[in-house]
Design brief:
alpha/beta; Rossmann fold; seven-stranded mixed β-sheet; 7 strands; about 20% strand; globular; binds S-adenosylmethionine
Length: about 220
Amino acid sequence: MKQWIKIQRIPGVLATSYEKATRLVINSYYSEVADEIVSRFTSGKMLDLGTGPGYLPVEIVNRQPNINILGIDLSKKLIHMAQANAAKAGLSDQLRFEVGNSARLRFSDEVFDMVLSTGMLHSLKDPVGVFKEIYRVLKKGGQAWLFDPAKVASDVDRVKWKASLSIREKFFLQLFKSFGLHKPIETYRRDEVLPMIEASGFKDFHIEENEDEIRIKLKK
Ligand SMILES: C[S@@+](CC[C@H](N)C(=O)[O-])C[C@H]1O[C@@H](n2cnc3c(N)ncnc32)[C@H](O)[C@@H]1O
């Protein structure tokens, strides 16, 4: 059996290929998630962990300008893309993006009304550490919604995506696959996330399991 190596950060040479995939699901996946979020939250300070190119924060603030979002990601290249996407949407006042590790957040305790994350959980080396950090930075009564691996993976029209890739992008995707660095995405199951939730301190939670995504909603 092929041995895969877990890499958390989307490597710089794969950032543009990833961005092209996510761009294809803005009107399906991110719109749907943003609609659900603004139907529940109309203002406040949110933190988006593993924000990638920032399309979900852009969709949220486009719908509800009273929300401020800080997106963090390990990838410097994706953070630059997210900043450019926020500027292009005219939302740089409400959206900020910076490089950071979700397992070691630089923020004080209890500063965010909501923590979000789509598509990051499956790639984490220390998921329990991240759950603990989420608990720490959330205000009392605040919520965290973690959707994974995010239908961003399964909703993408792969034919359209592959046709959009340059020779260089295809080369690096193939290279990462050959070296076992581009692990196929696996969805966590309920019984696997329950101990993580328990270890982090959350008592109030709801888990939805679909065929290709787990949606974890936590309340502090
Ligand atoms: C599959 S992408 C999802 C991006 C975006 N949320 C979306 O829905 O398109 C996962 C992202 O999480 C980032 N990431 C992985 N581990 C991280 C960590 N510990 N802290 C911050 N970002 C992380 C990766 O660099 C990558 O951009």
